Amino acid sequence: MTNPELFVGIDVSQARLDVALHPTGETFSVSNDDEGFTLLCTRLAASSPTLIVCEATGGMERPVVLACTLAGLPITVVNARQVRDFARATGQLAKTDRLDALILARFALAVRPEVRAIPDAQLRHLEALAVRRRQIVAMLTAERNRLGAAQSKVVRTHIEQLISHLQTLRKDLDRELLEAVQAEPVTQHRFELLCSAPGIGPVVALTLLSALPELGVLSRGQIAGLVGVAPINRDSGRMRGRRTTWGGRAEVRTALFMATTVAVRHNQTIKAHYEQLLARGKPKMVALIACLRKFVVRLNAMIRTDKPWQDQAEEASRPVGTANAVS
Asked: Is the pLDDT of residue 314 over 50?
């Protein structure tokens, strides 16, 4: 006799983890610390759950996800918006930590999101450094905007000192990021492959390595969807709506968008594709997004085949009338 499937939802807060099991309806809570993780993993391991689901909560979920993964438990992280939409669709409008855990367990049963391997320790360290660099850059932008509006000489001096300090921190992080890449031969090789593509500089390559570890593993459609540049149909009956893009990893998409604006001028393959789209009357932003999608698909193939970037001469010489449609 086979054991019935068991699905677990974990609602993560700063001090506590609320846990719910479905279909038993059992709920309990543990502290959000190492002691709580040990209790949680011991209790869940005895039940052999089919799937454990928790929401992305700005990084607070990472310690418990790592603890469960190391304990051999099947856990995955899902988008919080999708879970709230699921709760509304099932008529669950009230919101408490316990109810959220129950909804997560029911979501696990209904949707069964894929369990993905977590990055190794080296990639997690690289990601932490990259995230901190983005935070420092955001603070630099905010302080420079404040400097432009400041009237007081004392305030301006204070802001200038803070900007100087933040610039020093950014340089330190750049050095630490490169050292982290060079410490691992495989990561160093992937970094060099990415930098071989015209338009991809060290910052974009580091962003891809840290925030898109699936590069080179997924299919072209999957990697485009993960970045958020896969076209979404809007059709109903005879109506054919305009294709749009939605979702994806914002930090990766932002970095690749800036790389694409460079590539349409200096990367022969991307430049040829961009010019073909403009010649067909596509708006510039539509053409840029299409080029971004082509760029990330080519980078994905480049990492998968372990070959540096090569321009596609046949695409550059292809007549406009035979160019592929924007996808």
From this structure: no
